[in-house]
Design goal:
7 helices, five-stranded antiparallel beta sheet, flat, alpha+beta
Length: 396
């Protein structure tokens, strides 16, 4: 075999060796801590990841059920309602269908406050409903009228009146809140009619990407008819209340069916009005905290009022500006003078004469320190060595 025929074999062996070496190097590199997914994202931009708080809205809904044509919800309430918050075209469409919409800024009338605080003696007790939804979520349905077997309604759609008979029908309001501006909530209200027998349908699930195949779900429900020609928007802030009611004079209108239809033929006709409060959270980057006690509260302000907000940290005490009091200096204690040393009684100390010239100095015996005397034994004076006089010279 010629050497040229073995070149492809050596080339394949060399390529395999290079691929194996690259895999080994890549495997060692991927195992390094700095190449983990979390570290890679930390290196991008020079800082760690940030948690973005989702946009949420809290809706507080109250349905007042009163006798038909009750002055509290037909006169006292609408005297303080601003009905010019929606466009003129929306006002015309709602009025032709027996609906009435507005907004209250500030406190409610005294008659409505009395109804809200009643304990159930004068009428049904009012129980508010709380809904926390994502911004733009259209899944909030409010049931405003009970189900009736059959009803004939006249609905004005774009200045065209059409009549229709409905069976097993009930009325709903769909609420869709969205963040508006820096602090407000835009509330979109859509009237709906659910009627007919319960049927099984297979609606498609929403697909955000648009690339994945559509997914189907099984649903057993009545036919839902949205009346989008009568939809309207209200902008609510703190201390704002949305008011939705009807005009009781239009008996066969949509508003009369939704807010004043009796549950049965022998039941007394009642009238209803809906009050809606809306608040929101403040979206943004959730601050990182080091302690569990410093965890920020992302609940909306309304929910914090209902469930109890966390206690604020105690404010630091102000420094005391009063000058410190100086204690008085105690008077010095008198000290008695130390008594002078005296000689023992009956003992005279003889003066020591100066030694004569040429004579040696006398030796003085060292006295030992006296032993401590007991309380019962009298203390004797210490002994004193008296030097003897120098010798006299001999006479001639």
């Amino acid at each position: 075999m010629r050497p040229t025929s073995r070149m492809p074999v050596w080339a394949s062996i060399l390529a395999s060796a290079m691929v194996a070496g690259l895999l080994v190097v890549a495997g060692c590199t991927l195992d390094k801590p700095e190449n983990l997914p979390g570290r890679i994202f930390n290196r991008i931009g020079g800082h760690g990841g940030q948690i973005i708080e989702p946009k949420r809205c809290v809706l507080r809904v109250v349905i007042l059920d009163r006798p038909f044509r009750d002055p509290a919800i037909n006169e006292a309430l609408w005297r303080v309602v601003d009905e010019q918050v929606i466009t003129r075209a929306e006002q015309k469409a709602l009025q032709s269908n027996g609906l009435r919409v507005g907004r209250i800024i500030g406190e409610l009338p005294r008659e409505i406050e009395t109804i809200l605080k009643s304990d159930g003696h004068d009428g049904p007790r009012v129980v508010p409903s709380e809904l926390m939804v994502e911004s733009g979520d259209p899944k909030s349905l409010i049931s405003v009228s009970p189900r009736v077997e059959q009803v004939s309604l006249l609905i004005n759609r774009d200045d065209r009146v059409s009549g229709r008979d409905y069976r097993d029908v009930s009325g709903y309001l769909r609420l869709v809140p969205r963040h508006q501006g820096a602090h407000a909530v835009s509330l979109r209200v859509i009237p709906e009619l659910h009627h007919g027998p319960i049927q099984r349908t297979f609606p498609t699930l929403p697909n955000a990407t648009g690339i994945a195949p559509q997914e189907l779900t099984i649903r057993d429900a009545q036919q839902e008819e949205e009346i989008r020609e009568l939809a309207f928007d209200l902008v609510l802030e703190d201390n704002h209340v949305a008011v939705i009611g009807c005009r009781p004079d239009n008996l066969r209108s949509l508003g009369s069916f939704l807010f004043s239809q009796p549950a049965a033929e022998n039941d007394e006709r009642h009238q209803r009005v809906i009050l809606v409060w809306a608040t929101r959270n403040m979206p943004g980057v959730v601050a990182e905290v080091s302690r569990q006690d410093d965890k920020p509260d992302d609940r909306p302000r309304m929910l914090r009022r209902m469930k109890g907000a966390p206690e604020p940290p105690p404010s630091p005490d102000r420094p005391d500006m009063t000058p410190p009091s100086i204690p008085a200096t105690p008077a010095p204690t008198p000290v008695s003078p130390r008594p002078a040393a005296t000689s023992a009684p009956g003992l005279a100390t003889a003066p020591v004469p100066a030694p004569a010239k040429g004579a040696s100095s006398p030796r003085v015996a060292k006295s030992q320190p006296p032993a401590p005397a007991s309380a019962s034994t009298p203390t004797s004076p210490p002994a004193v060595d008296v030097p003897s006089p120098p010798p006299q010279p001999r006479g001639q």
